[in-house]
Design a protein that fits this description.
By secondary structure, the protein is of the alpha/beta class. Helix content is 60%, strand content 10%.
Length: 315
């Protein structure tokens, strides 16, 4: 059996490859198991790993990682293709050859076509924030930990919606030997990126909590986060407020609004409250002032940090 694991999210594809290998090991405990990082191994040893197989052996589970990063990747790929053409055992359960590549393999290559024709292919999905939260909930459940949806979202923000970072933070939580976690626990046990302060800034704006907004933007300034990036996030949030107000007035349901805006359901209430707080005249004025600030910042007529601080006073 041949199976390729690849995709844009290397953590997800490797996690799937390891998980699949573990499933096979439990199903066939009599099979030998080999795992090789091909990027740093000799070519002959890699080839010998899957060629040293005969019909009298119990079976084999092989996980080859990073074949395409080897300096002789073309030769190894060619040999693997020739081997699969000549050996029927690779089509049986006795030979389980799993290959993981840390990036997406082009579909027009002979390497990819081998797995498409004779095996299976797993491609890791490119997660957006909504699908990331869905994945995160499954990951937390698989670890037998308990977190409310808002806590999972907070942890996702701290990990900058990165699967590898999220999994690493979950491992830290597991070391505490606790099984249930609150937002306060995250403050104690996990680290964060500057992104968490961005989200706290937006959260403060949407919940009309000026103290939280001011504290968050000052922390971002201390971390030397690009003011233009902060401005872009504020502008994006303002667009979401306008869109939420428009869609709400059209009597669309919460699930429809979340689907259109591509936002997690539990972030919508704060957006709806903020949207209801403004009438259209006020939003038009804010948009005008925001556009003026954008121009003033880009032309150097106002200090970006000062401009952003002033912008907070009208939001």
């Amino acid at each position: 059996m041949l199976k390729l694991f690849h995709g844009k999210d290397s953590f997800l594809s490797l996690d799937q490859a390891k998980g699949y290998a573990q499933t096979l090991k439990k199903k066939y405990p009599q099979f030998s198991h080999v795992q090789i990082d091909c990027s740093s191994e000799e070519k002959d040893k890699i080839i010998q790993t899957y060629q040293s197989f005969d019909m009298f052996s119990n079976g084999k589970i092989i996980l080859l990682k990073r074949i395409l990063e080897h300096q002789d990747s073309k030769e190894i790929s060619k040999n693997l293709i020739e081997f699969s053409d000549k050996n029927s055992d690779i089509d049986t359960q006795k030979m389980n050859l799993l290959v993981w590549e840390p990036s997406k393999v082009r579909s027009n290559t002979r390497f990819y076509k081998l797995f498409k024709a004779k095996g299976e292919i797993y491609e890791s999905p490119n997660l957006n924030k909504r699908t990331f939260i869905t994945w995160a909930k499954k990951h937390i459940k698989g670890k037998k930990l308990k977190m409310a949806s808002a806590v999972i979202y907070e942890l996702a923000q701290r990990a900058d919606f990165d699967t590898q970072r999220f999994a690493n933070e979950v491992e830290k939580l597991e070391l505490t030997e606790k099984t249930s976690f609150t937002k306060e626990d995250l403050e104690t046990y996990t680290s964060d990126t500057y992104q968490i302060d961005i989200w706290k800034l937006i959260d403060g704006l949407n919940k009309s909590q000026p103290k939280l907004s001011t504290t968050s933007i000052n922390k971002l300034f201390e971390q030397n986060v690009d003011p233009y990036y902060i401005f872009a996030m504020i502008a994006r949030n303002l667009r979401q407020i306008v869109q939420t107000k428009s869609l709400s007035e059209k009597q669309l349901g919460n699930s429809e609004i979340c689907s259109i805006l591509r936002i997690p359901p539990f972030t919508l209430p704060a957006l709806k409250r903020k949207a209801a707080h403004f009438n259209w005249e006020r939003l038009a004025l804010i948009y005008e002032k925001t556009n003026n600030l954008d121009y003033e910042m880009k032309t150097g007529r106002i200090d970006p940090k000062l401009g952003l601080t002033l912008l907070l006073t009208i939001l």
